[in-house]
Design brief:
Elements (H helix, E strand, L loop, with lengths): L28 H4 E9 L3 E8 L2 E12 L5 H16 L9 E6 L3 E7 L6 H7 L5 H20 L2 E2 L8 E3 L8 E3 L6 E2 L20 H4 L7 H16 L12 H6 L18 H10 L10 H7 L1 H4 L24 H33 L1 H11 L10 H11 L13
Antiparallel strand pairs: 1-2, 2-3, 3-5, 4-5, 6-9, 7-8
Length: about 400
């Protein structure tokens, strides 16, 4: 959901991007921005549309974070993410940070509004979906991540949900968002990060192995995203599969499984790029820059030409065939994702009840519009309910950055 946002300074007082000093701006947030309809809601805050009082022609997105809903560590995490966004604000493919405010009760992060929603939502609505559409998205993502890495920052949670389209009319530009797990890399190139953090299906092998890792974990995640974009399936299985981590650690994936002919319509050049990104050894894995420079699939062909690919003579055909099977699977993926999000709200509400008490949480639930849970208490009962409906048990997201 992102509109055409010009990068300019809006003449208003704002809080520091590195400190949380109360009273560091002159006016209450509501006197500077008009808050509109709600876009989304999470455990600690809500995302709404907003307009600046001096610029009613442009609509932004404001993330309102309730300081009373999390610990000081959670609030510090928000400030750290905001500081990273400030540092990345000149990169066209990163969701633009417009403003940041904080008061006694809330923190407000004002960003550009992504009008197109996330990438998968738009792909599911397209009348025709081809390999060339995937190429355009992957090329933009690789370019954006390369620029992020040049700032010595690694995202660590790349997935389709964090790729937003600037316009609702198509995939002309994507915005990378949600830097909640992003981290500055050690300046010494021989040192790395060690925290196990990210979304299970997109984790690189070195994270699971407990090895120090650097920016190439993002390249692995892009390989997973590209695999899904082309065939509509995850390469290593779902989060509820017992063999997920083992498959990731061994880079064990296949293109043609159980007679599935989807990959028969995908070019050899696309498979080569996936193979280079989904390489278990990070020293042999292509970086985003190497992918942009070395992938013939990205650099050659206009969508219909067949071109020799080096010594292997593999065809680079950016097929114009409609990937209807892949698109249908993407639609199912979206449905499962939305169901998972709804179930996570259920579990979060139950956890609040266990910690804060039923009455206090029900009052909060009424304000947020989440249905009350009258007959369930605790994880065990939720899992039983899910089993009866055929919904797989939900795997908790991995970790949080140190």
């Amino acid at each position: 959901m992102v509109g055409s946002t010009k990068r300019r300074n809006i003449p208003v007082k704002r809080a520091s991007l590195t400190t949380d000093k109360l009273g560091s701006f002159k006016f209450p947030f509501e006197e500077v921005y008009t808050i509109g309809e709600k876009i989304n809601e999470g455990q600690f805050g809500v995302l709404c549309k907003a307009q600046h009082v001096l610029n009613t022609e442009e609509t932004f997105a404001v993330k309102i974070i309730n300081k009373n809903s999390g610990s000081q560590s959670d609030l510090d995490h928000v400030l750290y993410e905001t500081e990273l966004l400030r540092e990345l604000r000149d990169i066209p493919g990163v969701i633009p940070l417009i403003d940041f405010y904080t008061d006694q009760h809330n923190s407000y992060i004002v960003q550009a509004l992504a009008e197109g929603g996330d990438v998968f939502d738009q792909l599911a609505l397209k009348e025709t979906y081809t390999e060339r559409d995937c190429k355009q998205l992957i090329k933009q993502l690789l370019s954006t991540i390369h620029q992020v890495h040049k700032c010595n920052i690694v995202h660590r949670d790349l997935k389709p949900e964090n790729l937003l389209l600037k316009h609702a009319s198509g995939n002309d530009q994507i915005y990378l968002c949600d830097f909640g797990e992003a981290k500055k890399l050690p300046k010494n190139i021989y040192e790395g990060l060690t925290t196990m953090v990210g979304t299970p299906e997109y984790l690189a092998p070195e994270i699971l192995n407990g090895d120090p890792y650097r920016e190439k974990v993002d390249a692995w995640s892009i390989g997973v995203i590209m695999f899904i974009l082309l065939c509509g399936k995850l390469p290593f299985g779902n989060h509820d599969d017992s063999f997920l981590y083992e498959n990731i650690q061994n880079a064990d994936y296949e293109y043609d499984v159980d007679g599935d002919d989807t990959w028969d319509f995908i070019s050899g050049g696309a498979k080569v790029l996936i193979d280079r990104l989904l390489t278990a050894d990070p020293n042999k894995r292509w970086s985003p820059l190497e992918a942009l420079e070395k992938s013939r699939w990205l650099t050659i062909g206009d969508g219909n030409k067949k071109i020799a690919c080096g010594a292997s003579s593999a065809s680079i055909i950016q097929s114009s065939s409609h990937l209807d099977t892949s698109q249908a699977r993407i639609r199912k993926y979206i449905a499962r994702r939305k169901l998972k999000a709804a179930c996570n709200i259920v579990r979060t509400t139950i956890r609040w009840k266990n910690v804060l008490g039923k009455k206090k949480v029900d009052n909060t639930v009424e304000k947020t519009g989440i249905p009350k849970l009258k007959y369930m208490s605790g994880k065990k009962n939720v899992d039983k309910r899910l089993e009866k409906t055929g919904v797989p048990k939900l795997y908790s997201p991995v970790g949080r950055s140190a």
